[in-house]
Amino acid sequence: MKYIFITGGVVSSLGKGLTAGSLGALLECRGLKVCTQKFDPYLNIDPGTMNPAQHGEVYVLQDGTETDLDLGHYERFTSSTLSKKHTLTSGQIYSSVLQKERNGDYLGKTVQVIPHVTNEIKERIYAAGEDADVVITEIGGTTGDIEGLPFLEALRQLALESEGKNVLFIHVTLIPFLRAAGELKTKPTQQSVAKLREIGIQPDIIICRTEIPISDDMRQKISLFCNVPLKSVIEELDLKISVYELPLLLHSEKLDDIVCQKLRIETQECDIRPWENVVEKIKFPKQECRVGLVAKYLDVKDAYKSVYEALSHSGIFNDCKVNVEVIDAEELEQAEDVDEFFRDIDGILLPGGFGNRGIEGKILAARFARKCRIPYFGICLGMQVAVIEFARHVLSYADANSTEMVPETSHPVIRMLFDQKNVTKKGGTMRLGSYPCKLTPNSKAFASYRTTYVNERHRHRYEFNNDYRKAFEDHGMIFSGINPDFDLVEILELEDHPWFIGVQFHPEFQSKPQCTHPLFSSFIAAILERKADNKTN
Ligand code: GLN
Question: Does 352 contact ligand 1 (Cβ within 6 A)?
């Protein structure tokens, strides 16, 4: 097994996750089996309890683990399906060490960061790979952070254990451009590498994030001061069009060659064509459309990361540039003229969410889409909102609601899942992860998936109330996807509408640039069809 560790220098948000994912993509293009893993030094057990406005979306794995959004990058860039083993926080490490201490597992020893915490970290690295050829582990945060130290120490020990043979360190760093001086500066990088070397880690490769190309002199300087060979100074220019350009960019800098040489891995030639095709499609779309994303976390694209990515995949699939316009659900709630918000919008997407804020605005959006026959895609809360809207305005249950919003509503069309009723703890307690769904023949959902059974990932506490199923069906709602084990509504759609689909799960977590999720691709296809019809009429 070969191990690649990716650390970050100078600042956070350098795109280490994208770099790790792209390296994974390149190694797969060389025929290797890759597994990618993320360590986050914060003390939360997982990001499930964090605010998406601060931390970005909570990504959900097939096994129900709630993780950092970087795991989403890894799954989108590689063919892997990740699990609990591929995400680790300081919170989990300390909690496990303390549990073992209480169980008496340390046999009377003094429990310390070295070796007990570091051993725990190493065990998780060794356990990650199973049948992979290469394990890529990204360390969150920035070199020099106090909470990251035990992780770096564990990596140093692991390199020592492998006698330096099977381990490679990549340091992703920023080369800032000082506008006033008109030049790039390498000093912060020198200092962050010095910090790593102080800990006992000598990076093998330096990946330099930069706004403008780095000159040969600059590369020489970084090589000299950071003690890495010149060819191992890799330039990672800011991407102009799409994150999916990154594998191509890193390949042109020979990153995969250098990694394989250093780790002494013999592989086939790198077949980069699938990524070239993806980028080609993104660069030269044949048409455009506008999707209105009715949301409450504004200006924080990361809060809906996978939704944005899945929309871009459906653009690749449909040869179309999908422009996303964020519509503030709270503003919509106050609006005098709702139509105004949707003037140039070709389709409406309502993503997942929690709580009351902006909920009435979201209901207005669903109503607008239903009445004006605009393609509507409701995801999780977006499905629940469509149900509330239908109950209020088609079935005339004026105060219909979800018990999440109004517990005492007389028409609880969305209610808490049975097994959630006695749950008091917040972390990891929702209905999480992959569940099966059986599709109804002749439905739009079936036509999109073209199969009868699918598995989709969930993260919610509330569900459609089956007591209302008949009333909804009698008025034109089709329940086109049902969980066969518990008879829960997973997908619903309107009979008499070009494309109005709500799903209780999160399809965005299973979309990849080379394999768009079928519901996302058919949503955009419906938008394009409607646009074409409008033109001819
Ligand atoms: N708040 C809703 C629930 O818990 C929807 C959750 C979501 O959109 N992920 O059921």
Answer: yes
